[in-house]
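Hi support team,

I submitted a single chain yesterday and got back a structure, but I'm not sure I'm reading the token output correctly. Could someone confirm the output below corresponds to the sequence I sent? I've pasted both exactly as they appear in my results page.

Thanks,
R.
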Amino acid sequence: MAKRILLVDDEPLIIKGLKYTLEQDGYETESAFDGEEALSKFFASEFDLVLLDVMLPKMDGITVCQRIREHSNVPIIMLTAKGEDMDKILGLEYGADDYMTKPFNILEVKARIKTIMRRMNSVESHGIIKIHDMEINSTNRVVTLRGKEVRLTAKEFDLLYMFATNRGRVFSREQMLETVWKYDYTGDARTVDVHIRRLREKIESDPAHPEYIYTKWGVGYYFTDKD
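Hi R., thanks for writing in. Yes, this is the structure output for that exact sequence:
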């Protein structure tokens, strides 16, 4: 079955170019020209990925991204004409998987989409995520590093799986508490730092210079997006 992509931009020429190119590659596309239309179409159907402009009429792309993230982990690539760090940080912090600055090369867009789709297919088809020397088996909740099993607590595994299925996305401590601990914990966010430190000690060759879990100073933590 063809993968379905929701294209959201208020510039018809950009939508037209993306639509033509992606459909030539076998994707099915749906278009929306403002934030409200994007949410309406997203919740009325099923999509495998969303290309979402930051600057939109009626409702901005950051808000659209947040609303989608409240209900779905579908991959989201943000498009921004500003090229400002704040847009990039906000987009990733609020749940985007990647971002591209306009004007963009359509070949680069296709490459980013293929990379994300490949990661999603790996998880969906086999229940196993492979990143560098690490394998994460979501079925039996086993993690191996360079062929040897890594003993993780339940919360450490949940943290690692959350990161690995949202590579490049920055999570604040509060977001991690809500996602992993849910309603089981009512203390302060410092417990996240303790778990991250212990997790790094188990999976990083040098915890002081991590290969997998990085710190976004003043914001939170994120997992490597490099293959």
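A quick pointer for reading it: The CA atoms of residues 83 and 206 lie 33 Å apart. Let us know if anything else looks off.

Best,
Support desk
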